[in-house]
UniProtKB/TrEMBL annotation:
<keyword id="KW-0949">S-adenosyl-L-methionine</keyword>
<dbReference type="InterPro" id="IPR058240">
    <property type="entry name" value="rSAM_sf"/>
</dbReference>
<keyword id="KW-0411">Iron-sulfur</keyword>
<protein>
    <recommendedName>
        <fullName>Heme chaperone HemW</fullName>
    </recommendedName>
</protein>
<dbReference type="InterPro" id="IPR034505">
    <property type="entry name" value="Coproporphyrinogen-III_oxidase"/>
</dbReference>
<dbReference type="InterPro" id="IPR006638">
    <property type="entry name" value="Elp3/MiaA/NifB-like_rSAM"/>
</dbReference>
<keyword id="KW-0479">Metal-binding</keyword>
<keyword id="KW-0408">Iron</keyword>
<dbReference type="InterPro" id="IPR013785">
    <property type="entry name" value="Aldolase_TIM"/>
</dbReference>
<feature type="domain" description="Radical SAM core">
    <location>
        <begin position="58"/>
        <end position="297"/>
    </location>
</feature>
<dbReference type="InterPro" id="IPR007197">
    <property type="entry name" value="rSAM"/>
</dbReference>
<dbReference type="Pfam" id="PF04055">
    <property type="entry name" value="Radical_SAM"/>
</dbReference>
Length: 487
């Protein structure tokens, strides 16, 4: 007689196989629980010092990732749902930098209690800031954590191609301050596709100049990306972008399936039609082979790096369970107690002004978030960190208590050739890298699924009403109809 565990394993094995056969493309899993699950926190229940004191008790080797959010952009890409506002006002940049540095100082004890591993300045487009703003940030950090340059293995900033190509002297100043990596959004090297992304101010020549400039200036790690599934993209145009980028030799390359979430402009207008077809996995296969042939190694399901130089340390460490302290108006913080934001998920100039005021008055508190049970901590690691995970690390959070639920998923993944079992260590196979997000979805808890579904159903309804009022044509998604997920 077949055991209940074997019955569950067989059912899950068939489920995974069916999703792979159908070419299901879930959104890329870069956080768990996703932002869509955040809800208003009870006023006064959580204080930032208490959250981080509780988190500190959960770690034998206390470490920390630091994320600094700069929300400003000079344009809004159509597929972007990040916390950004359009501004190039240097007076606003000055005030925001002052507020961010005040917030860094207010978190001095939290930072000092841990070994600082990475500093990432994201956005937005923080490269819009001037060198004096970065100098102010780094000076503030040095004041509270004098040896931060000795302990930190990565200092990263997000940039646009034009911010490097058109202002090389300012970018060189950042390298001289200790910048080790820049994330540069490229998305495509085909002019029509670049325009489709809503980035009409840049072209492929600016992208090439930016990459050459970064190399010439001695930036240790230039991280670039390409997106599969733009409207009008063909197998030929995809191969062109992949081949061109491989020849330009950035140290890190990411390839993403396009996901237009309901809170992005493309979805709000309903005017954009994009691909979400199983054939996109053929583009994944092509890119992977080209990058491996050019000497890259695969670091994750979406990322390739030059050995010894490339990579994305903060993301890897966060997936491994190292907590992340997010400072700035739209930043998220990830702890073993509570994932939280100190602002709303809806960006606005008014909220940025309110953040500047509250930071100056030392009034920043958690506003939205989700409390993590021990079970959700285990699920987080399984969702994010299946590339190479020792399950023994999860026993102190109660893995064995829920093993009857998790082990059949792992058995089914192994049966489909997605992972290796090395004792209690699991590692994804090349096939597992390819279908990692199919596997990750299977570790979502029912409460998280419910919150995620509620959030996106409400957004879809709001977008439908708005499009009806505008008389716009609804968005048509070809391929598998799968709910949007982590935002």
């Amino acid at each position: 007689m077949t055991s209940l565990r074997q019955q569950l394993t067989d059912r899950l094995t068939d489920q995974i196989a069916a999703q792979i056969a159908q070419g299901v493309i879930p959104p890329y899993q870069y956080s768990y629980p996703p932002r869509s699950t955040y809800r208003p926190l009870p006023q006064g229940k959580w204080s930032i010092p208490e959250i981080w004191a509780m988190d500190l008790a959960n770690y034998q080797i206390p470490e920390l990732n630091l994320y600094l959010h700069v929300p400003f952009c000079d344009r809004k890409c159509g597929f972007c749902n990040l916390y950004t506002i359009i501004s190039t006002d240097e007076d606003v940049f000055d005030a925001y930098t002052d507020a961010l540095c005040t917030q860094i100082e207010d978190h001095a004890e939290i930072i000092q209690a841990r070994r600082l591993r990475t500093v990432y300045i994201g956005g937005g487009t923080p490269a819009l800031l001037k060198p004096r703003h970065f100098e102010q940030i780094f000076t503030t950090l040095a004041r509270i954590y004098p040896n931060w340059r000795s302990t930190v293995e990565e200092v990263a900033v997000e940039a646009t191609p034009s911010s490097i190509a058109d202002a090389p002297h300012e970018f060189k100043a950042l390298i001289d301050m200790g910048l080790t990596r820049a994330n540069v959004g490229i998305q495509s090297l085909v002019p029509r596709e670049i325009r489709e992304a809503g980035r009409g101010g840049e072209d492929e020549n600016v992208i090439r100049r930016a990459i050459r400039t970064a190399h010439e200036l001695g930036l240790p790690d230039l991280s670039t990306d390409l997106i599969m599934g733009f409207a009008g993209q063909t197998p030929e145009t995809w191969r062109h972008s992949v081949d061109e980028l491989a020849a330009l030799k950035p140290t890190t390359i990411s390839t993403y399936f396009l996901t237009v979430r309901p809170d992005a402009w493309f979805s709000k207008t309903g005017a954009y039609q994009y691909m979400w077809q199983p054939e996109l996995y053929d583009r994944y296969d092509y890119a992977r082979q080209v990058f491996l042939d050019h000497g890259y190694v695969q670091e994750g399901s979406v990322r390739y790096k030059t050995p010894g130089r490339g990579g994305y340390a903060q993301k890897v460490l966060t997936f491994h369970g190292v907590p992340l302290l997010g400072l700035g108006v739209g930043a998220r913080s990830y702890t073993s107690v509570l994932d939280y934001m100190t602002g709303s998920v809806k960006p606005s100039t008014a909220e940025v002004a309110d953040y500047i005021r509250k930071a100056g008055n030392h009034e920043i508190v958690p506003v939205t978030g989700i409390e993590l049970t021990a079970e959700e901590i285990v699920r987080k690691r399984l969702v994010l960190d299946s590339f190479d995970l020792d399950l023994c690390e999860l026993d102190r959070f109660g893995y064995q208590k829920h093993a009857a639920e998790f082990e059949p998923v792992l058995d089914a993944a192994e049966a489909n050739g997605l992972l290796h079992r090395l004792g209690r260590r699991i590692q994804l196979t090349p096939k597992g890298f390819k279908y990692r997000d199919v596997l990750s979805w299977m570790f979502y808890s029912d409460p998280v699924k419910g919150l995620d579904r509620e959030y996106y159903e409400n957004l879809h309804a709001a977008n439908s009403r708005a499009r009806k009022n505008m008389g716009a044509t609804p968005v048509r998604i070809t391929g598998v109809d799968l709910r949007e997920g982590a935002a």
